[in-house]
Amino acid sequence: MAYWLMKSEPAVYSWEQMAGDKKTVWSGVRNHQAANNMKAMKPGDRAFFYHSNDGREIAGIVKVSRPYHSDPTDTSGKFGMVEVTAEKPLKKPVALAEIKAQPQLRNMALVRQSRLSVSPVTAAEWVAICKMGGIQP
DNA sequence: GCCAACGTTGGC
DNA sequence: GCCAACGTTGGC
User: How many structural domains does chain A have?
Assistant: First the structure.
């Protein structure tokens, strides 16, 4: 069981839409590092749903419901996608500023590589953020 | 709106 | 294979 973080601009696709849709495919990723992270995902893995740009906070949790497979929006055939299902919102969204203020979270991929749209999360980071978000890990 | 980080492209 | 130019992401 691994943990991840997936970014979305709320103006494009928000947590509210994610929760309404129940599940969605994470298409459109065109970065190899992000794609490799999705490749490593297994059904049942969980990911934080992060609002980038406008919001800058973790809003909810999704679960991987289908492993990496080809992305029909990529005509080159190089990139794939996973399918994720909304699990639950955080009781209290966790802002990027709060994450940066926590010494034990300073090494998060989210902080260190701000442009990476799909990044790994360690078990310790997962637990700490769930606690900050007011939910059970 | 600005800019840092970083990926990609293309000339050589 | 190197590197300058350029485009994009995303925080501030």
Answer: 1
